[in-house]
Design goal:
Elements lengths: L1 E6 L4 H16 L4 E6 L14 E5 L7 E4 L1 H12 L2
Length: 82
């Protein structure tokens, strides 16, 4: 599974989620984790709002996207436990 985390240094909720992400990365090292700061991203697909997490289960699946603090907090953990 590939987890892409879109964040920004100016985003307070993004900073609050840092420890949550770190904990999940330690619990699920088998997954590919990528953190992208939207202010530094050259990626045209980077979202205009943050925090956003995109989860792609396989290379053939469409990504599942979680937007906002509550949705990320609940949804990401559920996806990882599947």
């Amino acid at each position: 599974m590939k987890i892409t985390i879109y964040t920004a240094t100016w985003c307070g909720k993004c900073q609050m989620l840092k420890d949550f992400y770190a904990s999940l990365q330690r619990q699920h090292p088998q997954h590919e984790w990528l953190v992208i700061d939207v202010d530094e991203a050259d990626d045209a697909d980077a979202p205009s709002t943050v925090p956003v997490v995109s989860v792609k289960r396989t290379k053939y699946d469409s990504p599942t996207t979680f937007v906002g603090f509550s949705e990320i907090n609940c949804g990401l953990e559920l996806m990882l436990d599947l």
